[in-house]
Design a protein that fits this description.
With 416 residues, the chain is an alpha+beta fold. It has 2 domains: 3-215 and 331-415, Aminopeptidase; 216-329, Alpha-Beta Plaits. It is built from 12 helices and 16 strands. Strands 1, 2, 3, 4, 5, 6, 14, 15 and 16 form a 9-stranded mixed sheet that branches. Strands 7, 9, 10, 12 and 13 form a 5-stranded antiparallel sheet that branches. Strands 8-11 form a two-stranded antiparallel ribbon. Strand 3, helix 3 and strand 4 form a beta-alpha-beta unit. The chain is elongated and about 80 Å long. 49% of the residues are buried. The structure holds (2S)-amino(hydroxy)ethanoic acid (HGY) and manganese (II) ion (2 copies).
Length: 416
């Protein structure tokens, strides 16, 4: 890279204003966003992103999973491109930066290259991956999983939301079924910018997290089965109350995390009792479990502890437990060449950085299976995310985008 191309800065206010514009689409109720995957709000966010990319002289293509690729030509169009991006869908009570920052930082890096007339040898493609969050249609990171061959398109499109609507129907509904086949193709590298969604960078006053990998993750659907009984006439001795049994199991799941100190994560995010009448002892409870750990070995131990607790529950309460594993993601270690390029970018800009392992899943997890990949983290206030209060400053997002710009120039090869 020539000296002029080192240490370039993005246009901070343009990048910040794009975030504010995007945040107007699918607003939450407390200042964040509710732009869930494949809703009409997601469609509007996609449309806005497409307009911005076309205004930056990029050609936008869409694949059959709705993944969006905005391509900036390279001087050698035959070379595999460098991809950069993340996701525009949000949690139901999501923030304005989770995913969005990764897509808009990549767009801002390209706009800055355009402003400065910089050409790269390799094409650059900005990606908006479909349904990263997995809150409406599980599993998460769905669009990138199909692209990377980790999930079949048919399986993905058959998944249903809580209203029984399939992902395939929802994608058709927003008219984002593209023509390009959803399959991996030669990619030189994939870089994803993201807010850390945790407290460490802010606590240590680091502007950049050089993400070296992502922990192992597993999702389950669990069902506790008891007996519906009259709330007034049924004494404790005759009850098989699915809700009180499930509550005991949830506390045991929490204990699986607690006794691992800071290394384990167990979360019950959805918990529903049926039939859902005030004067009927519940006969069925359905809940989700999200388990994570830096190593698969330890995550498998947590799995065994969960299943043993379920067996003990049956002996203790007479309520049966059905456990369905719906997703597993191995731990991922990112590519050293990409990691080194990010470190160089942070050093060039004089941004204090540290290596960090991601506790959250990202589309880079799937991309790392088919191409050299890595991630750039920036701090977010109090480490809060998946919460409408999520916040990252204009300075923090500009610092992340500056490092992305350097990294893309490094990997895409500047022309001579
Ligand atoms: O669940 C995750 O880790 C990601 O934020 N979707
Ligand atoms: Mn995300
Ligand atoms: Mn998220």
């Amino acid at each position: 890279m020539t000296d002029i191309q080192r240490n370039l800065s993005v246009n901070k206010s343009r990048l910040w204003n794009m975030h504010l514009e995007m945040a107007k689409i699918g607003p939450g109720v407390a200042g964040g966003n509710n732009r869930q995957a494949l809703t009409d709000d997601d469609r509007m966010g996609r449309d806005l992103f497409k307009t911005w990319c076309e205004a930056a002289d990029m050609t936008v293509s869409i694949d059959t999973m709705g993944n969006m690729f905005a391509r900036r030509a390279g001087t050698n169009q035959t070379l595999p491109p460098v991809l950069a991006g993340s996701h525009l869908d949000t949690q139901p009570t999501g923030g304005r930066f989770d995913g969005v920052f990764g897509v808009l930082a990549a767009l801002e890096a390209v706009q800055t290259m355009n402003d400065l007339g910089i050409k790269t040898e390799r094409p650059i493609e900005i990606v908006n991956w479909t349904n990263e969050e997995g809150s409406r249609f599980g599993p998460p990171m769905m669009g990138s999983a199909v692209f990377a061959g980790a999930l079949s398109e048919a399986e993905a499109k058959a998944t249903k939301d809580q209203d029984g609507f399939t992902m395939g129907e929802a994608l058709k509904e927003i008219d984002y079924v593209g023509k390009e086949p959803t399959q991996s193709r030669p990619v030189h590298a994939f870089i994803e910018c993201h807010i850390e969604q945790g407290p460490f960078l802010e606590r240590e006053d680091k502007a950049i997290g050089v993400v070296t990998g992502v922990q192992a993750m597993r999702w389950y659907k669990a069902r506790v089965l008891g007996e519906a009984r009259h709330a007034g006439t049924t004494p404790p001795s005759s009850r098989k109350d699915a809700l009180t049994a499930a509550a005991k199991l949830v506390l045991k799941i929490d204990a699986i995390m607690q006794h691992r100190g800071d290394a384990g994560r167990c979360t019950v995010g959805i918990f529903q009792a049926f039939p859902g009448s005030p004067n009927v002892c519940p006969d069925r409870v359905e809940f989700t479990v999200d388990m994570r750990n830096p190593t698969s070995e330890e995550l498998n131990k947590m799995d065994r502890e969960f299943r043993r607790a379920a067996e003990d529950l049956y002996i203790d309460t007479g309520c049966g437990v059905e456990i369905e594993e719906i997703w597993f993601s191995e731990p991922v270690h990112f590519d050293q060449t990409c990691i080194d390029a990010i470190r160089r970018g942070a050093n060039e800009h004089g941004h204090p950085w540290r290596d960090i392992m991601s506790g959250a899943g990202h589309d880079a997890v799937n991309m790392a299976r088919i191409a050299p990949s890595a991630m750039i983290f920036i701090p977010c206030k109090d480490g809060i995310s998946h919460n409408e209060a999520e916040y990252s400053s204009p300075e923090a997002i500009a610092a992340g985008a500056d490092v992305l710009l350097s990294t893309l120039l490094d990997l895409a090869g500047p022309t001579t």
